[in-house]
Amino acid sequence: MTVKFFKLTKNLSLRFKTTMASINEAKQIAAYKAVDDHVKSGQVIGVGSGSTAVLAAQRLAERFKQEKLNIRCVPTSFQARQLIIHHKLPLTDLEIDPIVDITIDGADEVDANLTCIKGGGACLLQEKIVASNSKKLVIIADHTKDSEKLGEKWKKGVPIEVVPMAYVAIKNKIEKTLGGTAELRLAKMKAGPIVTDDGNFILDWKDFDPECNWEKVNNQLLQIPGLIETGLFVNMAVMAYFGMNDGSVKVRIPEDSKKCQGACYV
Ligand SMILES: O=C(CO)[C@H](O)[C@H](O)COP(=O)(O)O
Asked: Which SUPFAM superfamilies match (predicted)?
């Protein structure tokens, strides 16, 4: 496994020497380092979704102002669009900029090959579209997301976006052919299911076989009519940045790095 550790040289690191970094601090050091390492003037940037991506957008905005960067930002969700607007970053989209230089996004779990589970925030469809049109996908996360095998750490299942009228049929098909259980994700402050940015439902597929071949499973799932997209990001991420407890950042590339072509379809 290729792993590198970086110590922060900023003020934050002084605090980390004496106290354990909180999860939020761990997210922040990973997000800041990824933005500092990868973002350059002249790029089109995919802005990820979730709480770690909020911190990356924050750092992106700082650098945009301080360095007068010439960048354009493609959102991966409603939330990401709001972040771009809030920070007064230049907003673009895939219609204007169909090739993204780099997308920096969070993940719910990342295995040894950088296969990721994404969609904990239900934004997986646009996240995958933007990532698949990016030259590079870089994942940012705290150390609790770093695992050998998917399902080891993330217990909420693989999010799967489905057309609402087909959710029972798809649930039954997944459970019959791949085992486990696929549960309709319910909203917290609304009666009934959560509805994604694109008007669909989410099934969270749990108790899957942790030894399965994720590429095969992903392709199998994508054959089901009405199943729009999965939260399985296979052979897409080129690098993952994990904020650690001691204030360092662990950078991983896929174990089988020959297989990873960065963005799959560009
Ligand atoms: O895939 C996502 C949203 O659909 C997020 O990137 C993922 O859920 C991680 O979120 P957080 O950074 O809040 O832990």
From this structure: D-ribose-5-phosphate isomerase (RpiA), lid domain (SSF75445), NagB/RpiA/CoA transferase-like (SSF100950)
